[in-house]
Amino acid sequence: KLTSLALQPVITAELVQGRVHLKCSYSPPSPEPPVLWGYRVLWSRLSSPGKREQLHQETTPQPFSYAEMDGANLRLGDTVFCTVTAFRRGTPEQQSLPEDSKGFYAGIKFLPESLEIAEDGKEHVLTVLSTVPIACPGQEDSCKITLLLSTEDLGKSSQVPGPPDIALSACQVDLLPGPCSGSRCAAATVTVTAVTDFAQDGRRVSSVSARPAAPRDLLWRAYTPRDVKVTVRDLPTGNCYSFTDPHIITFDGWRYDSHKVGTFLLCRSESRAFEVHIRQWDCGGHRSATACNCGVAAR
């Protein structure tokens, strides 16, 4: 066998006659003329962690090889490899060592692949990226893939899931056709914000999922992208109280009593539109004047 020839195979995606194909490109050995060489290209995909399933093999004189994403043999969601072996045209038994490409994930990716955010009101950008081109044969004027976005609370193992701890800026995004650059063929963004719920519920995990909406193309019809997990971290929050006849404890721990009857401003923020009003009615006996909380209004 010949030694390694630094073929450096790389997989990219492109459209060929309106259909999505993966292209395996490799460098011809130098300094000899490229016409002296042939190549065996083996396509495979990840079937389970650490295991590959062979798809097909071809022999070609070209420094590239194509495999069509047909939705059957090669589907969205596959991680695909190409393995290239070079040989001299006159002596095919003299082969180079086979060289693997890096795994190419064909489908939708979320970037970043996971998020850790806090209940601080900040917006975090989540990019929805397609590594394959968007194709709509016969519908080029209105060509796009619409992804419906949803959230789900995964909670903790000991808890029943509740409302999601995150909010999205949009319920759907559109992926539009355009030229590919590396493994980036189409992209859209959405912002994720932690819900500030004032509940001390520790670190909770939610997921963001994307589902193609009524795809016409068979390639997208049976495809569900991987979810992205978002961990939400609690931040300490202040508390104030007004209870019984009423005793009042302020945010900084001071204690007061208030026995007056009427409607009062209990709390107002100086930095945002937030305030709480209370109404106190007489609830005492003949011996002492006592008022109790009977109503509250908040914004």
TrEMBL record:
Top-level taxon of the source organism: Eukaryota
Every VWFD domain range: 238-299
Keyword check for Signal: yes
TM ranges: none
InterPro entries cross-referenced by the UniProt entry: Dev_Signal_Modulators, Ig_VWDE, VWF_type-D
PROSITE patterns reported for this sequence: VWFD
An example Gene Ontology molecular-function term: signaling receptor binding
GO cellular component: cell surface; extracellular region
Swiss-Prot/TrEMBL keywords: Disulfide bond, Signal
Protein's name in the database: VWDE protein
Species name: Leptocoma aspasia
Lineage per the UniProt record: Eukaryota, Metazoa, Chordata, Craniata, Vertebrata
